[in-house]
Amino acid sequence: MTNPRKTLGSSTLEVGRIGLGCMGMSEFYGGARDEAACIKVLHAAVELGVTHFDTADMYGVGHNEELIAKAFADRWGKVTVATKFGVQRGPGGEWLGICGRPEYVKEACEKSLKRLGVETIDLYYQHRPDPNVPLEDSVGAMKELVAAGKVRFIGLSECTAEQLRAAHAVHPITALQSEYSLWTRNVEDGILGTCRELGISLVAYSPLGRGFLTGGIPNREALDEHDWRRSNPRFSEDALAQNARFVELLQELAARKKATQAQVALAWVLAQGEDIFVIPGTRRIERLRENLGAGSVELTAEELAEIRSRLPKETAGARY
Ligand SMILES: NC(=O)c1ccc[n+]([C@@H]2O[C@H](COP(=O)([O-])OP(=O)(O)OC[C@H]3O[C@@H](n4cnc5c(N)ncnc54)[C@H](OP(=O)(O)O)[C@@H]3O)[C@@H](O)[C@H]2O)c1
After folding, report:
1. Which tens digits make up the pLDDT trace of 94-118?
2. Which residue's C-alpha comes closest to atom 43 of ligand 1?
3. Residue 108, CA distances (Å) to 28, 197, 238 in order
4. Mean pLDDT of 285-309
5. Can you tell me which atom of ligand 1 is nearest the CA of 56?
6. Of the candidates 82, 85, 158, which has an alpha carbon nearest to the alpha carbon of residue 120?
7. Is residue 316 part of a domain?
8. Number of C-beta neighbours around residue 105 at 10 A
9. Which pLDDT band holds residue 190 (cuts at 50, 70, 90)?
10. What is the pTM of this model?
11. What lines the ligand 1 site, CB under 6 Å?
């Protein structure tokens, strides 16, 4: 299993290029929560050499950070944990909007520190820019958190190239977290180039297309009735049928490479540049192992060119 470590952006955080996204352990992706099983996955990940774990204050309305605190209480020295602020939710999970006001940024950070049970957050992302607050103000507050020793490095998620540039002028940005996978390649239209120009790493979220690219979600019946994806346009019956072409291409490549579809999907993202990291999410140890195996799947230049030429032109259904 190869998971070479690379430095995130110009920070001193050296992490494996394959990390673990923890969101689904608390909510969104069907089925009842199983804390004990998820803690086993988190422990197995550390044993398998995973060093990069991704969470956010809004995942499970604090539950995900608390889960990580429970799992890593005696392992903090071995892991890099990234968390995020900015998507406000009420106690019952209701959506309250995006907030990037400086005082809110600091309050949210205090709450995350408390839930995680740490004094410093390794990588703190603004989850979404607040359209009503200049980004420079939010990032200015994050810069103060760095100066106060509460945050080591800062990142942004799903912003524009202009916003990334403006933020980087206030304080060095270590990572941009955006969706990137075979069926979501929008970052290639501009922001990836800006990341490279500024020396910012791209952390690719939902690199398995929220599970779709693994071939495990051929239709809506495969999703639990409470699964958030049932309300996502890409998981409508019509979109799933149209997007099946992605899965067919992956199936063919997986057979040829003697790998699994998930591994080829991840290997493709990793092959887009050494400055790209992936954080696939899973609640199962066998899938964690499988996903880590993507590090050993090498796609040749010819295969990469072939994949691009055969990719469906459009992905049916909006991302959100
Ligand atoms: N910044 C943002 O706005 C944002 C948005 C979304 C996500 N994220 C982060 O990115 C992480 C990853 O994204 P994601 O969880 O949305 O999507 P993903 O990693 O593309 O896919 C996760 C889904 O795939 C399934 N899966 C994982 N490995 C598999 C395998 N080998 N075979 C078959 N199925 C497999 C998982 O099911 P099981 O869990 O049942 O294995 C889960 O349903 C999240 O955990 C979160 O930390 C960030």
Report:
1. 999 999 999 999 999 999 999 999 9
2. 211
3. 22, 31, 39
4. 97
5. 47
6. 82
7. no
8. 25
9. confident
10. 0.98
11. 21-24, 29, 54, 127, 157-158, 177, 205-211, 214, 216, 262, 279-284, 287, 290-291
Atom number, ligand 1, closest to the C-alpha of residue 213: 20
How much is the pLDDT for 31? 84
Measured in degrees and rounded to the nearest 5, phi and psi for residue 301 equal: -60, -35
Q: Within a domain: residue 319? A: no
Report how far residue 41's alpha carbon sits from residue 43's, in angstroms, rounded to the nearest whole number: 5
CA angle 243, 290, 183 (to 5 degrees): 20
Please report, rounded to a whole number, the percentage of residues in the chain having pLDDT higher than 90: 97
Nearest residue by C-alpha to atom 35 in ligand 1: 211
What CA–CA distance (Å, rounded) separates 38 from 210? 18
CATH code of residue 33: 3.20.20.100
| Stretch 167-172: mean pLDDT | 98
Over residues 196-205, the pLDDT tens digits come to 999 999 999 9
As for how many domains the chain has, the answer is 1
177: containing domain: 5-310
Measured distance CA(286)–CA(272) in Å, rounded? 26
